[in-house]
Design goal:
The complex is a heterodimer. By secondary structure, chain A is an all-alpha fold. Chain A is built from 23 helices and no strands. The longest helix of chain A is centred in the middle third of the chain and has 26 residues. The relative contact order of chain A is 0.13. By secondary structure, chain B is α/β, with parallel strands linked by helices. Chain B has two domains: about 140 residues, Rossmann fold; about 140 residues, 3-Layer(aba) Sandwich (Rossmann fold), CATH 3.40.50. In chain B, helix 1 crosses helix 9. The longest helix of chain B is centred in the N-terminal third of the chain and has 16 residues. Classes of the chains: A mainly alpha, B alpha/beta. At the A-B interface, helix 1, helix 6, helix 9 and helix 22 of A face helix 3, helix 7 and helix 11 of B.
Chain lengths: ~475, ~300
């Protein structure tokens, strides 16, 4: 058979798809399922393995990965199409859809200029105070609205400061990295603070409800997790300033320029006031009403109002939202539920515990290590939400307190500091072209150690107070 | 005469209709590449495309990155790739101070057009300048291949890469044009053209490109024919004779060398650091090239001089 260069190129580009399919086929046809795991559970794990390879290497578009998850579940996973469809849309997916839309609606209002002015008034022109201010504001805002929206609003502020600081022949790499990482890491550490801080938080809440593992209200979540955010803010600032020492101690010229630039925004318009008011209402709904109506429905209600009042157009929303991501989360959650239903999650959990119990005899410590280790490592390779969608059912089958283990898993899935792909905030600052991949490693390992210690501290000292 | 045969045949390419593509990555690293690209395009009177290929964000966070970029537009902060293209245009103007048409072109980051998975900068006064500025995101070889196929470029000009071994294979196998890799290229250095001549079908084009470059840049020309054994067969000898005759017919002086040994090692040793190598693309089938490599791939992997692979 003659293989042309075009065919060879296609094979080269799609090699990870072919590898995933080959592994899947070998496991399906030639490797019998373990005796302790049923056939359907085994097939679901094969589908998950293939999907992890595809998500990691992205040889095909994200929506295509979602579609293969759906049809494989029906063809080899022992589920009916209606079963898969039934788990496909739920509050977590509504929330992810709503929060992506809210980000577009709010960012398009231009409120970031006001935010910039507020930060500068708060911090003054000293570099370390600006870095501390960026970290704190990013963390706090991100805990309520999610890191992608905060980073989208904060990045222009940082880049404007960088632009007015840069002089020809002068290297400001330390300052640039300090400003950008204060946003990315600030937004990332904040995203665990409340359920609305990230899609993964809501995915875990959804799993708790689906698996009958209990529940946490918005306020209860905050009470348990927010102290960790508050501990991490100053330490993150310290790590960033030590890792990337800024060349300039004061940014007076840049701050003056920024103030002039944002001052042109004038008084707040009716549109901006309405937009803020609506968002405050959504936030209130999340805090006070989410136990009854769910976070997703409230987010969608907010979007309905934004559209109704003409604060954002459907065209802007549909252009700004990656529908493939929504499709993928629907599909990933549906397979997560199937993993639980077919016993695949329990088998994996038991296998991990058995494998490690000689190394870590204490069962509580072992469960914590599996939960944190699995989530922390995977989140640096996949996105944090995908990590929780896949790891969540396993963690909830480890035994022990599913709420605490689930929280530990969600929190550690935010430890994606090492690479630009793990967290949206890291991807966004990387896309500016001003920080390089090794910069994430330079600061990331320190952030990871700090975060693990903070989590251990909160889990051992704070969480027992709620039991 | 061989030269007559070559000149009487249908011309392998028409220099007037050539399209060259230069890939740039940053103002810091791409200056020599762009300079050589501009020089070659101007001496050949070819139209010149400049493409920036940036990394594409993971699709997971693609919408967050796009949202941020839209917001950055409101702050008049442009895409880093557009900044590089703006620099490239400025460099092209500096390199061609007499080009009045080019001088008129103004870069406007708002005047961009998204099409076919790429962003093209709309240049309002580009009549007569034949310049394209394009931004793409994704894997380098994939994007260059798409750009070459879309616009029908004849030559892709690429800077030397840190990751040369890995890229050499993909670039030479999958880019459907001639390829000029500017490794350790010094624009101030006076190079000698070194044409690798053998009995392969690509030798004819190699000679034609070599003659054109020698005429335009005035660089001295050497041809090198390498045989694995001491005996040079009729094919090798004939190809070398054809080359000599062709250069003679165009009034270009040429030095001929015949060496014995492993072809790739001999090319690399002979090229040293002061030659500009021109060789034909491999005619091996793609699978064999993929598995075992080819002379051009191995030469590109092992040498550090600028190299033009003619397809």
């Amino acid at each position: 058979m003659h293989i042309s260069a075009d065919m060879l190129f296609w094979i080269q580009q799609k090699r990870w798809l072919l590898i995933a399919l080959a592994i899947g086929a070998i496991l399906y046809f030639f490797v019998p399922h373990p005796q302790s795991l049923g056939q359907d559970g085994y097939h679901i794990l094969i589908i998950i393995l293939m999907t992890l390879i595809l998500i990691l290497k992205e040889p095909i578009p994200l929506p295509a990965i979602a579609l293969q998850l759906i049809f494989w579940q029906v063809i080899i996973g022992g589920s009916t199409a209606n079963e898969v469809g039934g788990y496909f849309m739920n509050d977590a997916v509504f929330f992810i859809m709503g929060s992506l839309m809210l980000a577009v609606a709010i960012v398009s209002q231009g409120l970031d200029k006001r935010l910039a002015l507020g930060i500068i008034r708060l911090t003054g022109n000293k570099t370390w105070r600006i870095v501390a201010g960026f970290t704190a504001i990013s963390a706090i805002l991100s805990s309520f609205v999610g890191p992608h929206m905060v980073t989208a609003m904060m990045l222009p502020v940082a880049l404007t400061l960088i632009r007015y600081t840069s002089k020809k022949g002068q290297s400001n790499t330390g300052l640039i990295a300090a400003l950008l990482f204060s946003i990315a890491y600030g937004a990332t550490i904040g995203s665990i603070g409340t359920p609305s801080g990230g899609g993964r938080n809501v995915i875990m809440m959804n799993y708790w409800a689906e698996f009958g593992s209990g529940s946490l209200s918005y306020i209860e979540w905050m009470k348990m997790v927010y102290p960790m955010v508050l501990i991490e803010i100053p330490i993150t600032t310290f790590i960033i300033l030590k890792t990337f020492p800024p060349e300039l101690k004061v940014l007076d010229t840049a701050v003056r320029h920024l103030s002039v630039e944002v001052a042109h925004a004038g008084k707040m318009s009716w549109k901006e006031i309405s937009s803020l008011g609506l968002f405050a209402a959504v936030l209130y709904g999340w805090i006070a009403l989410s136990e009854v109506y769910g976070l997703g429905s409230i987010a969608l209600m907010g979007i309905f109002l934004y559209l109704t009042f003409g604060l954002v157009s459907w065209k802007e929303l549909s252009r700004g939202v990656n529908w493939g991501v929504i499709l993928l989360f629907g599909a990933t959650i549906s397979i997560g539920v199937q993993m639980k239903n077919t016993g695949g999650a329990a088998w994996l959990a038991e296998g991990s515990v058995n494998f490690l119990q000689n190394l870590i005899p204490n069962i509580d410590t072992l469960r914590a290590v599996v939960s944190v280790g699995l989530s922390g490592v995977l989140s640096n390779l996949l996105s944090s939400s995908a990590t929780v969608a896949v790891v969540g059912p396993v963690v909830l089958n480890l035994g022990g307190d599913p709420i605490l283990l689930g929280l530990a898993s969600v929190i550690s899935s935010a430890f994606g500091y090492f690479t630009a792909v793990a967290a949206p905030a890291c991807t966004i600052i990387y896309s500016s072209g001003l920080v390089k991949a090794p910069d994430f490693l330079r600061a990331g390992w320190k952030m990871a150690i700090m975060s693990v210690i903070s989590l251990a501290l909160v889990a051992l000292v704070w969480w027992p107070l709620f039991q | 005469m061989v030269a007559t045969i070559m000149t009487n045949k249908k011309v392998l390419f028409d220099p007037k209709s050539l399209k060259f593509l230069t890939a740039v990555s940053s103002a810091e690293y791409s200056k020599p590449t762009l300079k050589m690209g501009a020089l070659i395009a101007s001496v050949f009177d070819a139209s010149h495309g400049v493409v920036y290929v940036g990394e594409r964000a993971s699709e997971f966070h693609g919408s967050s990155v796009n949202l941020t970029r839209q917001n950055l537009d409101n702050w008049n902060i442009i895409h880093p790739g557009l900044e590089v293209l703006e620099w490239a245009l400025q460099e092209l103007k500096t390199l061609s101070p007499d080009n009045e048409e080019l001088a008129k072109i103004q870069f406007n980051p708002d005047h961009v057009y998204e099409e076919d998975g790429r962003v093209r900068v709309i240049l309002p006064d580009d009549k007569g300048c034949r310049i394209e500025l394009v931004l793409r995101e994704g894997e380098l070889v994939d994007q260059l291949r798409k750009e070459i196929q879309l616009e029908g470029y004849d030559l892709a000009i690429i800077g030397g890469s840190q990751n040369k071994r890995h890229l050499a294979h993909s670039i030479l196998q999958y880019l459907p044009s001639s390829i000029f890799v500017l490794q350790k290229f010094n624009p101030r250095k006076k190079y000698k053209l070194l044409l690798l001549v053998d009995d392969s079908t690509a030798t004819g084009k190699t000679i034609e490109w070599g003659a054109l470059i020698a005429e335009k840049l005035g660089w001295p020309v050497r041809t090198l024919t390498v045989s694995k054994t001491k005996r040079f067969g009729a094919g090798y000898q004939g190809a070398a004779d054809k080359a000599k005759a062709y250069f003679d017919s165009r009034g270009i002086e040429v030095e001929q060398f015949f060496l014995t040994g492993d072809p790739v090692r001999t090319f690399v040793e002979f090229a040293g650091d002061n030659h500009f190598v021109i060789m034909g693309a491999s005619t091996l089938n793609p699978v064999k090239q993929f598995l075992f490599g080819s002379k051009p791939i191995k030469t590109l992997e092992q040498t550090d001089v600028p190299i033009l692979i003619v397809r």
